[in-house]
Amino acid sequence: MFKNYLKIAWRNLWKSKSFSLINILGLALGMACSLLIVLWVKDEIRMDRFHENDARLYRVYENQHYSGTINTTVATPGVLAENIVRDIPEIEMASQLLWEETPVLKVGDVFDNESGRYVQGDFLKMFSYDLAEGDAASALKRPDGIVISQKLAGKYFKGQSAMGKTIRVDGKTDVIVTGVLKDINPSSSLNFEFLMSFDQWLKDNAWAKEWGNNGPRCAVMLAKNADVDKVNAKIKNYIKTKNKNSNIDIFLVNYGESYLYSKWESGKQTGGRIEYVKMFSIVAVFILVIACINFMNLATARSVKRAKEVGLRKVVGAYRHSLIAQFMGESVLITLISLLVAIVIVVVMLPSFNQLTDKKLSFDLFDPVMLAVVFGLTAFTGIMAGSYPALFMSSLNPVTILKGSLKFKPSASYFRQGLVVFQFGLSILLIMAMIVVYRQIDFIQHKNLGFDRGNLLYIDDLEKGMAKNFPAFKQALENEPGIKSVTASQASPLEVGSSTMGVTWPGKDTIQQLLFAVNPSGYDFVKTMDIQLLDGRDFSPEYGTDTSNYLINEAAAKKIGYKDPVGKELTMWGKKGKIIGLMKDYHIGSLHVAIEPLIVGLQPKTDNWGVALIRTESGQTKQAIDRIEHVFKQFNPGTPFKYYFADQELDKLYKSENVVSKLSNYFAFLAIFISCLGLFGLAAFTAEQRTKEIGVRKVLGASISNLVAMLSKDFVKLVAISALISFPIAWYFLRNWLDKYAYRIEWWYFVVTAIAALSIALITVSFQAIKAALLNPVKTLKSE
């Protein structure tokens, strides 16, 4: 019997090629989207979970308490790890971990900027980054040791072992290769080409030894039987025992968990990348459900043509359960064919998907997790898509069918219409998400930041040779054609990360603890950044006292309480001076947060810190870059010339959002495409049911436009209902998402979505309506 059912199913598929193609394509696209999302979600969930000691690895977080606010950060004192592992028995190992550094590594005539991290001795014992050569327990114990990747070993020591060889760092320090890293696990959130001793870095950065200064990150590994809650209670006031003036509590968060849960507000965890994981998991289900509803509607639309088959089967003795089994079998067959097509789509699209998401995903059908997902996806799709058609078709009355008077109950019509409302409701949610996310990202990228980011570039890490000679470098550049102005700054335009509470002024409440962002800079800072000065002037070498003076922004003036700040006293880090300029507020970080109060002090000698900011003349950037490179090589002959545009830095800040925006666009488009197939199917079903009515109306003089309007209005109503239901749901969730940005788009984008959905529905339905209206009434009424 099964063989017979299979033959019938195959003949029906082959007989109705267009119907089968639409069904298979709809399901295949839905399943392919779901599989791609599953691959992405699985990778996100597995991030940083590959470490052997995963359950015992934790990041140290700080809650910094200020007057009325709590700032949560992973920045810690640079001496925390070595002290906490000694003082807290439950902590077995600890390591400071620095942000990404890009020093110049040189061996013989080969040199280049390489990205890596400074870590402490136990880092490779705590984390599962395997070595191809060397001993993980001792590779980072010596201060002058360096562990490099196989890529760097091949680059600098071609054809020979790198172990024990010397590498010169930034033209001033020699280090010895003590280990060679294997390829880093793709599930690592940390990527590096080398590891060097944190103690080496600490020698050149004495500020990090102070308990009152924060910067480096700290990771710890707990003892096997340690209770993290008890450890958290024990270490909460640890920094206060080292610094009596501290306002900081510390606590531990599982290292793997911190990747997905990275957002904190007022000392509480509020989200992070987990939001995108949840969102795309829901999108995967939505798209699959939309595809299944599409199948249901198309199968129901075909029911009239198969009604006599069902009637005859029932007359000759077929039971309802056997008919259900037959139609469910056909559904599963279509699902299996769709799965094969979906797998082909996934394999073909995966390289592009990896490029879009900046991941290294692979589709392995023999992976137990993926095998379970594919099996579950097939079963879910086959049963869900085939359930209603199977139950509906098997319930038909054979007497009614064979008399040629097949009519459907209102309940059946309501159910199908409900499916359309539900299907298009999900699609409208996706369209709204697509438009809102896209417009918000576009808004961020084009928002006026308060300074001119066009024609502004910077050279990072001035410690690589030109720092002490910066005044001469600045002068040489400004003498070149195409270069408007040059300055130095501790941080690049949108990455001002330093802050301080060490600011006082006459009348300040000594109990208040207020935080200010700080960015020491050089002469011509305001001019080069093209920031609007509301009052006062820029730093100038003509004023010898400017080394003690300050520029502040509007937010800082408001926090201090100065209405006319220029000329007023201000003391920072014990250096008393005056405010010489009031800058209009400009963004110094992500638009997720409001503009911070900022103080800019003058530091004309950029010794071992900062970036060079260079403003080029409009239309002369290419020529200017050539001149900058020429001058750069005069001052740094042994350093690669690398520069960055301010616009590129802005893109980096919103890398995750950009990926989400693009994915939303693609998935929303596919959801709408699949939904339109479903709407197309229901329109075909309705037109087929009303063929004779249309013929009679045409005979009585109805025009094609009247018939099209008649057939379309019911569907437009359904989509309008979908929009009315979806609108408040989308409004709630998307407003919550937008609220995470201090600066965001306006509400009217939601209205655009509803109009777009109605337009798409009208176009889809109109095709079938026009086709039905053009039928010759002679053919449709001849049996009468």
Automatic annotation (TrEMBL):
Keyword Transcription among UniProt keywords: no
GO cellular component terms attached to this protein's record: plasma membrane
Coiled-coil residue windows: none
A single GO molecular function term of this UniProt record: transmembrane transporter activity
Keyword Cell membrane: yes
Domain (ABC3 transporter permease C-terminal): residue spans on this chain: 282-398, 667-776
Localization of this protein: Cell membrane
Membrane topology label: Multi-pass membrane protein
A Pfam family reported for this protein in Swiss-Prot or TrEMBL: MacB_PCD
PROSITE patterns, A to Z: PROKAR_LIPOPROTEIN
Membrane-crossing segments per the record: 21-41, 279-301, 322-349, 369-393, 414-438, 666-687, 715-735, 747-770
Stretches assigned to the MacB-like periplasmic core domain: 20-237, 443-628
UniProt KW keywords: Cell membrane, Membrane, Transmembrane, Transmembrane helix
PANTHER family (UniProt xref): ABC-TYPE MACROLIDE FAMILY EXPORT SYSTEM PERMEASE COMPONENT 2, MEMBRANE COMPONENT OF TRANSPORTER-RELATED
Protein name: ABC transporter permease
Organism from which the protein derives: Dyadobacter luteus
